[in-house]
């Protein structure tokens, strides 16, 4: 009986295997005659199988080769769902047993010829004429019909060979081992690739027509144009037509969905007993070819939203090697068209592609060490109406390693990218990208191109640095990735960055929430107006209090703080996991009179003599004033400082060998921001801080906020669109960060919570926010790095993997995975608590709990009353 069936229920549609053609989806289901239950293996009454079948291999002359088995295993692990098909012996008498033992469906050799494969075959064989045919035929029929002169078919330049499930052993010479080929699909060894001068005329020729193995099998190949409408009607009589080749090789105008199996029939005995249905019975109204294939087992093969003979082009591309895809020609063809982002003009001629083998990536705080092969892609694009050029770089994993993932990487300081961040995608099978922002090179920083000249802002560079460059890179990079790997299934989009890279991450989540599946954001340099000026606070404190400590004095002070506060968290490990308890319990004055000593040192040509002395009351006063955070002349809080136990990096003084005294050392980050960002002067730093007071710093902070609020402040607190889009954020910050106050991250988290859930209780609002956004304060960690002063603290090296598990598998990171990367505890795995919970060790430091402590929480919250506007 015919099988023109409605779509399957949504719960059956567990896995969609896409083709390169847009809109095509594959969803085969095996059910019994009553349509009740999926069966497994020998189709016995016990057990079930996944509701989808991923076919990655085809009929083979003998048992599967080791290579083929390894490839199948890798794909099975990648896709998790579905059954990976094993090879079967080619003798028909053995096929039934093979079906039973290996769950081989009628798509056993359904590898479709993609446009990429067609182009490759034609480019490698320019003088070769290959053929298709206009109806189903057996192998002996190929011999008799290949020269019949069908110009329409012949012009397509491709061979499509039907797998004959009803055929005899005479076909086994053509059903040899299936292996990956250079066309991005699978090759038939030996393939059937006749020329007009040398038609196939014997089995001997079949065995010797290897011709680089560039033929891809397609057992269920019928005409799209002739059959799509017919398939929507009750099994009409229809003649198969040769437009099928053209239809496959061209883009469809719209989604093409088949909701039934096309009403095929397999007539045993047709064509000398070889059983392939001819044109006149292709759409026979009384039986289905797919049904007949499983008739010995009492099963029916049903397709819903199923392009009848398509196998994942993503799987085909993945079968290719790095050498196959990492070519300038292939990369050039993958460049997306101009206009993908409004005003963006892509430049395919600029692209370069270079395969890299056995590249070792050193251990990083952002990803584990490893050795990888990848394709190094560079390209440029420009903006319509502007004489500019933006440089991009992508690291593309091998097709076998690619896991349908994209990762944008961010910058640091005034740099929009960091080269060492680009390998971050490789351990996770992700393409990773970076941009130069249009600044001239990957090494050129934003501060080098802003302002243009004295008094003239470079607004193009400003907005590229603020958010535009990363948006354009991710849009181009994601489209390029999908083209490069010939994929139309979902590409997961992630972001990873710390410091300036963290701010850039929030710029994308806040402005383009629907474009991201998730982001790992570390110690973000948000609240830019306050953040950069904040680097100048220690120098103004020293100048105001007229005390310039030797650097060794402050270094010893930090050591004493760590020693005193180490065990407040319940564990003696040299790590301050609870800076809040340290702040509540430690009196900095207790360090007065403690000795310090440091050897002489030379840095950047400046020699600092040996330092010996004791910690002074003046030194403690300077340190405490810095720790209290910036307050204006009226005592109002303008900003906050780093946590107690952090290094006093911005408070370091410089030694003047001519006077033998110490003086302020103006922070380049703070000084350059004032000269470039506020004064629009092309000066690398302030020459001095004469007449600069606490009120001056407050005013500079406010000026930066007002001037750059729309582009650099990056504290928009309403993430409703991102939440609605299903995005996830892992936000972390080192608790001993010495460059960006961790209280900055806490303030933003609390601003988002207050804005999005104003009517919920505190606990309920935190719970609601944690469904998609979690903040983690990393014990002992410094700025985007482990801390040499607290080496036994954990670091979330695999946070990107944790994010992917959250997004793709729903594994919520209630605590963040941390690894001790150095020190006596190196290799120890620790859990990092999600804010507002705080870590507390018990049982002599062997068990860690995450606890709620309101007094501790209060130490993280500041009333920035120096401003009359909200500071998110």
UniProtKB/TrEMBL annotation:
Protein species of origin: Aspergillus awamori (Black koji mold)
Keyword Calcium assigned: yes
UniProt entry keywords in alphabetical sequence: Calcium, Disulfide bond, Hydrolase, Metal-binding, Serine esterase, Signal
Gene Ontology MF terms in the entry: feruloyl esterase activity; metal ion binding
UniProt enzyme class: hydrolase
Family: Belongs to the tannase family.
One Pfam family from the record: Tannase
The organism's taxonomic lineage, starting at the top: Eukaryota, Fungi, Dikarya, Ascomycota, Pezizomycotina
PANTHER family linked: CARBOXYLIC ESTER HYDROLASE, FERULOYL ESTERASE B-RELATED
UniProt EC number: 3.1.1.-
Designated name of the protein: Carboxylic ester hydrolase
């Amino acid at each position: 009986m015919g099988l023109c069936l409605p779509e399957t229920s949504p719960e059956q549609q567990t896995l969609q295997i896409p083709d390169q053609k847009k809109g095509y989806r594959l969803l085969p289901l095996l059910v019994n005659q009553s349509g009740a239950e999926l069966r497994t293996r020998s189709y016995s009454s016990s057990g079930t199988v996944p509701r989808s079948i991923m076919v990655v291999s085809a009929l083979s002359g003998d048992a599967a080769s080791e290579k083929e088995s390894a490839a199948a295993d890798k794909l099975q692990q990648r896709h998790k769902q579905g059954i990976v098909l094993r090879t079967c012996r080619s003798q028909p008498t053995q096929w039934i047993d093979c079906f039973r033992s290996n769950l081989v469906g009628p798509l056993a050799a359904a590898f479709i010829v993609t446009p990429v494969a067609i182009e490759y075959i034609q480019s490698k064989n320019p003088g070769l004429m290959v053929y298709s045919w206009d109806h189903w035929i057996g192998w002996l029929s190929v011999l008799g019909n290949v020269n019949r002169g069908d110009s329409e078919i012949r012009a397509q330049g491709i061979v499509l060979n039907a797998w004959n499930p009803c055929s005899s052993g005479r076909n086994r010479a053509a059903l040899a081992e299936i292996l990956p080929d250079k066309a991005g699909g699978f090759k038939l060894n030996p393939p059937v690739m006749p020329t007009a001068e040398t038609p196939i005329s014997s089995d001997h020729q079949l065995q010797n027509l290897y011709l680089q193995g560039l033929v891809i099998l397609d057992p269920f190949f019928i005409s799209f144009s002739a059959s799509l409408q017919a398939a929507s009607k009750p099994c009409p009589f229809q003649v198969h037509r040769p437009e099928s080749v053209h239809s496959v090789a061209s883009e469809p105008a719209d989604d093409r969905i088949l909701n039934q199996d096309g009403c095929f029939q397999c007539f045993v005995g047709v064509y000398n007993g070889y059983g392939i249905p001819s044109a006149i019975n292709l759409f026979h109204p009384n039986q289905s070819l797919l049904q007949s294939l499983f008739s010995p087992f009492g099963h029916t093969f049903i397709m819903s939203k199923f392009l009848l003979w398509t196998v994942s082009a993503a799987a085909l591309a993945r079968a290719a090697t790095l050498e196959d895809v990492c070519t300038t020609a292939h990369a050039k063809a993958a460049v997306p068209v101009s206009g993908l982002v409004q005003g963006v003009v892509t430049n395919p001629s600029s692209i370069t592609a270079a395969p890299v083998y056995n590249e070792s990536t050193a251990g990083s705080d952002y990803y584990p060490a490893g050795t990888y092969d990848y394709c190094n892609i560079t390209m440029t694009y420009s903006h319509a109406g502007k004489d500019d050029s933006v440089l991009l770089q992508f690291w593309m994993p091998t097709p076998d390693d690619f896991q349908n993932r994209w990762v944008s990487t961010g910058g640091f300081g005034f740099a929009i990218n960091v080269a060492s961040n680009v390998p971050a995608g490789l351990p996770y099978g992700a393409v990773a990208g970076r941009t130069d922002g249009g600044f001239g090179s990957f090494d050129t920083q934003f501060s080098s191109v802003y302002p243009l000249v004295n008094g003239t802002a470079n607004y193009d560079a400003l907005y590229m640095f603020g958010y535009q460059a990363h948006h354009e890179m991710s849009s181009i990079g994601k489209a390029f990735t999908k083209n490069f790997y010939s994929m139309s299934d979902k590409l997961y989009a992630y972001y990873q960055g710390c410091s300036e890279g963290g701010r850039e991450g929030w710029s994308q989540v806040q402005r383009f929430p629907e474009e991201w599946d998730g982001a790992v954001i570390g110690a973000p340099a948000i609240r830019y107006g306050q953040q950069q000026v904040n680097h100048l606070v220690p120098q103004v404190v020293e100048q105001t209090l007229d005390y310039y400590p030797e650097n060794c004095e402050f270094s010893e002070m930090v050591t004493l703080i760590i020693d005193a506060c180490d065990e407040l968290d319940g564990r003696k490990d040299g790590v301050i996991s609870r800076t809040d308890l340290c702040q509540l319990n430690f009196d900095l004055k207790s360090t007065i009179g403690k000795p310090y000593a440091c050897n002489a040192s030379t840095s950047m040509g400046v020699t600092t003599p040996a330092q010996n002395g004791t910690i002074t009351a003046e030194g403690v006063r300077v340190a405490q004033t810095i720790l209290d955070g910036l307050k204006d002349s009226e005592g109002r809080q303008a900003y906050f400082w780093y946590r107690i136990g952090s290094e006093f990096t911005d408070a370091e003084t410089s030694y003047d060998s001519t006077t033998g005294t110490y003086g302020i050392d103006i922070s380049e980050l703070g000084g350059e921001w004032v000269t470039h960002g506020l004064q629009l002067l092309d000066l690398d730093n302030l020459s001095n801080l004469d007449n600069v007071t606490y009120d001056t710093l407050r005013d500079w902070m406010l000026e930066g906020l007002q001037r750059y609020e729309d582009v650099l402040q990056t504290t928009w607190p309403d993430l409703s669109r991102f939440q609605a889009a299903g995005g996830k954020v892992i936000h972390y910050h080192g608790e001993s960060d010495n460059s960006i106050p961790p209280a900055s991250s806490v303030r933003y988290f609390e601003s988002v919570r207050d804005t999005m859930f104003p009517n919920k209780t505190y606990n309920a609002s935190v719970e609601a926010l944690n469904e998609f956004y979690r903040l983690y304060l990393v014990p002992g960690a410094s700025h985007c790095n482990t801390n040499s002063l607290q080496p036994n603290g954990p670091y979330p090296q695999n946070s990107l993997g944790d994010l992917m598990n959250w997004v793709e598998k729903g594994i919520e990171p209630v605590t963040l995975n941390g690894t001790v990367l150095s020190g006596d505890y190196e290799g120890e795995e620790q859990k990092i608590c999600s804010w507002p919970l705080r870590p507390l060790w018990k049982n002599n430091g062997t068990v860690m709990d995450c606890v709620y402590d309101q007094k501790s929480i209060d130490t993280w919250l500041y009333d920035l009353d120096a401003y009359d506007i909200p500071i998110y």
